[in-house]
Amino acid sequence: MSSLLASLAKSLRSQSQAAREFKWMQQHISQHKHSPDIIHEYVRRRTAGEPLQYILGTQPFGPLNLLARPPVLIPRPETEHWVCKLAESFTPTAQKPISLLDLGTGSGCIPLLLCNLWPQGSVKAHAVDISPHALKLATDNAQLCGMQSSQQDHQTQNTFSTSMANFLAETFPDTATRSNAPFDIITSNPPYIPWNEYLELPRSVQDFEDPRALFGGPSGFNFYHAIARLISKEDILKPSGIVVLEVGHDQAKKVESLMLETGRFRRTEIWSDPWEKQRTVVAHM
Amino acid sequence: MSTPEDIVRLKQLKESELLDEAWTHWKANREQLDETVALLEDPDPTMRSLAVEEIDSLSTNLAELVQTTIPALLVPPSKTSHLGALMELKSGVGGSEASLFLAELLRMYQRLANNSRWHASVVGKNDLENGGIKDAVVEFKGEGAYDSLRWESGVHRVQRVPATETSGRTHTSTVAIVVLPLIEETDSQQDELFNMEDVKLEVMRARGAGGQHVNKTESAVRLTHIPSGVTVSMQDERSQHQNRRRAFQVLRSRLMDLKLTREMEERRSTRRNLVKGADRSEKIRTYNFAQDRVTDHRIGLTMKNLTSVMEGDGIELFIDALKQDNAESAMEAMLEESD
Ligand SMILES: C[S@@+](CC[C@H](N)C(=O)[O-])C[C@H]1O[C@@H](n2cnc3c(N)ncnc32)[C@H](O)[C@@H]1O
């Protein structure tokens, strides 16, 4: 046991982090009634760089405990923070439900947390992704959260639907997305890592998470350009719509100008994350 | 608190029906006693021996009234009786032996909770390989949990020969316990404890570029209540959300604890109490296995048969004695105030 802990500590370069992760592994094993021996396997995988979230198969996100499965991007605490902040910034009602589009939904974390935090019947969410793994995971997560699919009674419940689509393509929005448009809110945490930073990523990110979920083009801004083009189209946003975008540690100002240059917005805001990085650009029509 | 004059004064101090009743009772007993004493002079020996018996029982009654019934009526009802308790146990000196003892204490309190119909849940715990526990945090929910457990705050000392010790030498190890009042999120009292604007919420470690660049688990939070300077860090859970909830719960408990201490000081009640309650580094109890005894150093109470404390209901005797002692101190303070 202590040798396992020691090798974990060496690999994580922190005694206290290793002790916590070791405890979480043990808790997971006893909760799921796995054989205690599996801890060896877990530690071996972890020291080989695999993210703990893939080993345990989950990642808490707000009050939710979402499934995490390789290679779909693991929801980040920075994202958790701004989604909670967005949920608190206003509250839609069942009398006047809103529609939401999430671009590159991955695990589905953004729309699923909003659906959880907002009142039932107040939001109808649609999510797209290019990755079948992501769409499968988002659907499984929706089921885990007790979400209704949009065909069902959306008078009383929040609903969540998905479609496979490439939002960089000229042909976007796809039919399913178009049938849900126009939207009150568009959210996205698109791939934003530029080429030079991609090469420097920690192994647990680079070797285990989907490159298509991370790589934002040579300069990291490809997806923001595509989003700017999308919202310049008529009929995608409602007249008082908002766009909420997560950005990389040094991208907020540039993304803010990209949004303003569309001429669609009256006002923009930049939200910082708890680690004091400018993390979220919010644009109001 | 033993002369009838005191009771008269207290009677004036605090009018209550029950007290009046007890007082009438006392007077009747007292008169009867005087009459019976006269019978000790009776020429008839049977009469005299009856008188002796009668006096014995009357004195017991009087003592009971003066020492228990009346004091209990005079102590103001507890304002904290509805509160649950948050107990933190930390192994101190003695290494793995201390952690084994901690595990035993934890079981003892869980048994106590069961008998008292509280709901006990371990909300945080660090196990060691030897079967011991390095530290633990336990919530006790239910009527009277705080009032009973608050006196468990302090250093608990165990003296015994560890199972692993071949030379048979007795070791001394300690476990430090802190018990705080538990304020439920739904308790209306919590509103008075702090304003949200006065609480600074911070995340703990640096994350470099953060966001998509880093997938390390990061859920530690720290709260600072600016006016009081109380800080709470929580990092036991993978969920940031849960760590935050638990941190707020501990913050509420700490602030409530401060409030209760302050109120105690303001009422200038129980100087003894303060000495007892405030210093949590004080050694309060010894569990001596070789001598098969448990001693509470604050009230000088020793119980033989340590097993009945560790594995039976013995702990309840200590808790009752401490509550009683506290009630008496509160009474003394009242008497001083009325001077
Ligand atoms: C950074 S991840 C974000 C996942 C999730 N929204 C979150 O916050 O954890 C970006 C997601 O965009 C998806 N994606 C990448 N390129 C895409 C494209 N051209 N069209 C649609 N989705 C795409 C990826 O599969 C990935 O799930």
Give structural notes.
- The complex is a heterodimer of chains A (285) and B (339).
- Chain A is an alpha/beta fold and 285 residues long.
- Chain A has helices at 2-12, 15-31, 38-47, 52-56, 77-89, 109-117, 132-144, 175-180, 195-198, 203-206, 211-214, 222-232, 252-261, and strands at 58-61, 64-67, 98-103, 123-129, 159-164, 183-188, 237-246, 267-272, 278-284.
- In chain A, β1 and β2 (64-67) form a beta hairpin.
- The longest helix of chain A is centred in the first third of the chain and has 17 residues, at 15-31.
- Chain A is globular and about 60 Å long.
- In chain B, a hairpin with a 4-residue loop joins β10 (293-296) and β11.
- In chain B, the strands form two sheets. An eight-stranded mixed sheet of chain B has the order 2-3-1-5-4-9-10-11. A three-stranded antiparallel sheet of chain B has the order 6-7-8, covered by helices on one side.
- By secondary structure, chain B is an alpha+beta fold.
- In chain B, 47% of the residues lie in helices and 22% in strands.
- Chain B is flat, with a radius of gyration of 26 Å.
- S-adenosylmethionine (SAM) binds next to α6, β4 and α11 of chain A.
